[in-house]
Amino acid sequence: MSNAPEVTPEARGTVVTPVRVVIALCLAAPFVALLWVGSYAKATPVFIGIPFFYWYQMLWVIVSTGLTMIAYHLWRRDQQARATRSGNGGASK
Asked: For the chain, what is the mean pLDDT?
């Protein structure tokens, strides 16, 4: 038998928490929305002369930026909370 300490899932960072689920949804939403081409492969409605097919994709550039920022801030807050709970006093790399 080995005397190596047992590594828990939390120590490896593999614990699924509600915050991490929200982060995953924020990062997955743009992929799902843009890979489902049938939902936006049409010309109408037109917005300032631009067919729906194009302005929908451009809108997702802005939405994706916002969702990525939200995911980043949630991740940082989660990491700081985990560092505080583990006794590192909130120290981050």
From this structure: 85
